[in-house]
Amino acid sequence: MLTAKDNIFYFIYLHRTGLTVAGLSAVLLVWPLVESNPYNLGLSNLIAIYAIVVLGLNLFIGYAGQISLGHAAFFAIGAYGSAIGTATLGLPAWPVMAAVGLAAALIALAVGLPALKLSGHYLAMATLGFNIVIYTLLVQWDSVTGGPSGFSGIPSLTIGRLVFNNEIHFHYLVWTFAVLALLLCLNLVRSGAGRGLAALAEDETAAAALGVDTRRAKVKVFVLSAVLASVAGSLFAHCYAFVSPDSFNIFVSVDFVIMVVVGGMGSIWGTLFGTALITLLPEWIEALESFKDIVHGLILVLILLFMPQGLVTGIVDAVRTRIATSRHA
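-> structure tokens emitted (329 positions)
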């Protein structure tokens, strides 16, 4: 017969995901009350924005088993789309964000249908080429995008009379979107579609033999990840009121992939850790700022050599193995 203590542990185990999300939400709710430094809050907001992109990318890499080096392009589409729609055309921000997200989905569909016939490094090169095309467009079409000088004067987001024009207000907004994206991904990977994606990542041929429409699954998750990147780009534009092409070049796409790998491919919770670590690392070690891309590349190589399943996943697996070994002994 189960005791009250056993029932509590069973309840915690059964609802561990929901309780963890609730705990994270509680921490985020009080974080601005604990940390009043606007600069640190700004870094926290940047982590939230990047996490939205990387959560979608992890679905594509960790669950669909594909590789993309072009997600900064969809990030740019969201940012510049919202900037042009609101600052140049004078349209309301929220409908523009939704329209730009739809546009990103259609572009992802147009790119994904032919590109996802490829695999491995061929697919990586195709997505990299797409990123280069978007980056070149941002630089060269200066009459619309502002060119290399960037685009400024982007208005703040508002809800009624509430204007998101400081770091505290924006903290609650971007982390609300990040937690919603987290919940979306957690529920997706636990659904039938998510299990099909996991099978696809392990062995595409076997997944197809089990009835998974592999091509359609890859296209769907690619489109979803593009929409998440676009939403994050729109938030980025309204948060900083300025965007420039350098925020969306191929090195940013590589950084997104590194965040996925460090957090653990296929680890939704690890995504948050990987995003935070790669974002904060140059801040912790100021000397690395000038060599950021080299350091990030070195981290990627070391992780792939010694912990190919990702840093978080690797540490968790090592701890579980140690505990299991101790119990057996």
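The chain has one domain: 27-316.
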